[in-house]
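explain this:

___
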Amino acid sequence: MNYEDVMKLALERGFYFPSCEVYADAQAGFWEYGPSGVGLKNKFLELWRRELVRRDGMLEIDGSQIMSKSVFEASGHLGNFADPIIKCTNCKATFRADRTIAEVSKIEIPESADLVEFDNAIKENNIKCPKCKGVFENTKKFNMMFKVGIGPEEEIAYLRPETCQSIFVDFPRLFKIMRGKLPLGIAQVGKSFRNEIAPRQSLLRLREFYQAEIEVFCNPKKLDEMEKFSQIQDTVIRIQTDSETIAMTCKEAVKSGVIPNKFVAYYLGILTEFYEKTGIDIAKSRFRKLGEKEKAFYAEVAFDFEVETTIGWLELVACNYRSDYDLSSHAKKSKEKFEVMDNEEKVLPHVFEISMGIDRSLYTILEHSLRDDKENERTVLSLKPYLSPIHVGILSLVKKDGLKEKTDEIYLQ
């Protein structure tokens, strides 16, 4: 089954649909979950909490969606969280440079590449505006954060582009009041906001979207002292090398140097086990190590967990070893202390991040679970039982003899 089949199911069965669709001026990149979609999302998050958060006794917080300018000055988002854009000199339409080049010439240029690389590719391949065949201006950077004005004086703040920054700025308090011990995982589920240049394909590229993020704080000197590594050392993960995708156990991946240490391998292993339980075909998954120009500005090492769908490979999870980038940046900006004690040693923790896109994950689950039952001439959605939005219906055949009251009693138990 393909993308169109999933869209048909989503619209007809109340999984998701466009926001404000009754109005002609509805903006792209905003979608809403119906009853079936809310049920599936809640079940997905129950599984996420059980298999990832509670497994290691992680903490969970619920941070603000609007954060001060200082947070994003420190994090680097004000200066670096930008996409390359090109504007037509004729019709003034704007496009993402990297995607336009890839669609026309099949040349893949990382979004973080120097702007001159995009300009050269456009000139060398004679790429014109898709709308009017006009000539493009030189490539520019476009910051994707939504600015908001707080109060009557409209003090500058921003909608968060990722949920994790509140985890970082809250870390000193959380470590203290919860009597933390390294390694310490802190999780958060919520909405993030990115002013995407060209949102498209329903849940796959949104301006308002759900994330489930885990930040694991650790002592960088103890990355191979992972006590629970033995639990997943034989778990098979699929890793893309330069030439192919190979399957190997977590133990083999560490030994061969494909994964840098047991700490990272442990979380890639439990992430693979989690997605297998969602019903996604793990044989169609891979961890792709990102190159220097591909990874986020804050990442020292980065793996994307990707799954193959009928519209190509989708990134579902960004797994980033952020080192001490975030804590040291916030410590410098705020003048507060972010070091903690690990036994007798004072440490500025490093961070490994599991940043999960919920919307994309739900789409992929639907596509991998939807099948064509040709024998009975019907389409079947074969979700895992624990992800099903509806488990059982309690219905009374008649309203008399107290059956309806008994039905309600059973339903409310």
